[in-house]
Amino acid sequence: MIIGIDASRATVRRRTGTEGYSLNVICGLLEQGAEHRFRLYFRDDPPEDLFPTAPNVEHVVIRRKRLWTHVGLRHALRSDRPDVLFVPAHVVPWPNTMGVPAVVTIHDLGYLYYPEKHPLLSRLYLNWSTRHSARTARRVIAVSKATAHDLVALNGVPEEKIRVVYSGVDKILKPVKDEAQIERLRQRLGIPGPYLLHVGSLQPRKNLTRLLEAFDQIKNTAGPLTLVLAGQHGWEYHRFEERIKQMGLNGRVILPGYVPDEDLAALYSGALIYVFPSLHEGFGFPVLEAMACGTPVVCANTSSLPELVGDAAMTIAPSDVYGMSEALLRLLNDRSLRQDLIKRGIERAGMFTWEACARHTLEVLVEAAAHRPR
């Protein structure tokens, strides 16, 4: 087959979950699909070492500033005619894909559960693009059973069109035993001592205001703690920053901004607890990343998170500040529980690999191409 892939999101330098997914699943497809030809579509010239060089991989750069997908990519499909198009982290071209069967990955429908937690224009675009992509694509990959359920229940996508394919955990994420490496990172990020950690963009749907309130209740009960909130500043960040000041938590809450991938293992490994009270997640990468690094996890009991963590984390209702603080306090003081969750977490995270993700994704692409109209 000739497999066309929208690789436009894989070149983003500061990758979040969906961009990281795009990069890793494409790398996995190239490694496992040697019998196929791949045509990768980019907005700009990709770094030379981004993907492995191989004779069956072609790069197509579509230099268009506006309407890249709906005009540029669609025009390329009309002239190139791949056997199938894969859109891992974007939207399917409108109004159609010129007869090329498409497979799209849908990551999250949280904007339908918590519309007030998303900017209006972003919410409207997400709603349109998700419905259009799911309707137009031959197959839809859902990153969790929770997302698959949402696609059927909230968007009316036929169940037989959906395939659940779990994402993976990067192999560089593993426990860092070198205390000096962790200490150097702490000094560089301005973390003064023992800390609780959250990694993710700082925006309302991450439920971080309640995390502040829970942290405020326990910040001195097990020695002086700090709360590290690592991630890009998102929508309404200024209000969140103001809330920190109002609560008198300046100096106790550390905001280092975006942390590069190469520093994440040390950041996770140095934390006493990883906390993830997000209101809704299609696939909560950070909980598995923390587990892979040997850090015990407290996370919300909603959306995809229980499905991912199984019995390897403490789960709490994201609206329950008292329950959150009690879970954190218990995990800080119960050494046996900590060791049990660390062991379970490493085992659980090991179940999610990019090799398996790419293998199952390739199966879906072959399935979609086999149903191409002649």
A few lines on this structure:
With 374 residues, the protein is of the alpha/beta class. The chain contains 14 helices and 13 strands.
Which keywords apply here?
374 residues, alpha/beta, Rossmann fold, 7-stranded parallel β-sheet, 14 helices, 13 strands
Helix and strand topology:
Elements lengths: L1 E5 L10 H16 L4 E6 L14 E5 L6 H13 L3 E4 L14 E5 L3 H4 L6 H17 L2 E4 L2 H11 L6 E3 L14 H11 L5 E5 L8 H11 L7 E5 L6 H10 L6 E5 L3 H10 L2 E4 L8 H8 L4 E4 L4 H5 L4 E3 L4 H13 L1 H15 L4 H17 L4
Parallel strand pairs: 1-2, 1-4, 2-3, 4-5, 5-6, 6-7, 8-9, 8-11, 9-10, 11-12, 12-13
What's the helical proportion of residues? Answer: 40-55%
SS field, number of helical segments: 14
Rounded average pLDDT: 94
CATH class of the largest domain: Alpha Beta
* Count of structural domains: 2
CATH superfamily of the largest domain: Glycogen Phosphorylase B
Rg, nearest Å: 21 Å
Percent range for β-strand residues = 15-25%
Structural class by SSE content:
alpha/beta
What is the helix/strand order?
Answer: EHEEHEEHHEHEHEHEHEHEHEHEHHH
Structure characterization notes:
With 374 residues, the protein is α/β, with parallel strands linked by helices. It folds into two domains: 2-168 and 353-370, Glycogen Phosphorylase B (Rossmann fold); 179-349, Rossmann fold, CATH 3.40.50. Helix content is 43%, strand content 16%. It contains 14 helices and 13 strands. It has helices at residues 17-32, 68-80, 110-113, 120-136, 145-155, 179-189, 208-218, 237-246, 261-270, 285-292, 305-309, 321-333, 335-349, 354-370, and strands at residues 2-6, 37-42, 57-61, 84-87, 102-106, 139-142, 162-164, 195-199, 226-230, 253-257, 273-276, 297-300, 314-316. The relative contact order is 0.14.
